Amino acid sequence: MTSIPVDLKAGSLTMRRTLPQSLVAWLFLAPAAVIFAVVLIYPMTYSAWLSLFQWDGVSPNKVWVGVENYVELFTANRVFWIALKNNVFWSLLSLVIPTGIGLGLALLLNMAFRGSSFFRSVFYFPAILSMSIVGLIWSWMYHPTLGLINQSLAAIGLTGLENNWLSDPSIALYSVFVAATWHNAGLPMLLFLAGLQTIPKEVMEASRIDGATRLQGFWFVTFPMLRETTMVVVAITAINSLKVYDIIYVMTYGGPANRTQVLGTWMYFLTYNHNEVGLGTAIAVILFGLTLFFAIPYTRHMVRN
Hints:
The structure is a single chain. This protein is mostly helical. It is built from 15 helices and two strands. The chain has one domain: Orthogonal Bundle (MetI-like fold), CATH 1.10.3720. A two-stranded antiparallel sheet has the order 1-2. Helix 4 (78-109) packs across helix 9 and helix 9 packs antiparallel against helix 12. The chain is flat, with a radius of gyration of 26 Å. The protein starts with 5 loop residues before the first helix and ends with a helix. It is 71% helix and 1% strand.
């Protein structure tokens, strides 16, 4: 066992006696607070400041325009509204489909059967891949002539269902969303599975003895006891859906005809492709505000519990 030098012990005791306890706590927190301020607070504040200027990102001169960038986005930028609508649509679908699939898989995998651990790994595997890799995999699957999907449809005689999945403006966003669902269902499944395993078996047995069917047992017993887990899943899913960027960038690059733009990709294109740093950072501020709408209740709930 390692012994603590007597001098070090004495020094520590002396510091505790001479410094107020709150000051000692602040001294320990200071390094993390400095890193947090430099890495997060300063870039966010500077981005918000840049959103009040017209700037190409290169010129040494920035032109103060106040809130005109925000006014232009909401009144004259057609693609911004497409991106905002796609983000809202993406978030609503994400709250229903991947979350629902994750819950269904968790209910199935919570049953005792041979190979359940193997299937848990199989269904969770896509979640450990990066969105960029998922986008590349599904881009090949959606390839009009060489892709697995169109070739499978042709093999079973459903040639009428073959499509240009990523170049047809009417279905491109849905096609990308299917790929994202394949990736995003794993985390809700894991969280719901952990929540299900905390429910005492006696509660479920009691509901069966009282005559509850499986559906009634789920709706009146299991689901209410998953309330905490559901709140965590909904908050994480909503925040992640607002941040969607990489899979859109890899699979469609915002096209065709900007039909799959979301706030993240349009912010990038305005900033780096069109050199409209003010407009791009204004979108970043709007996106930050939308994220806070979900992040603040989630954080408060986690702190209280």
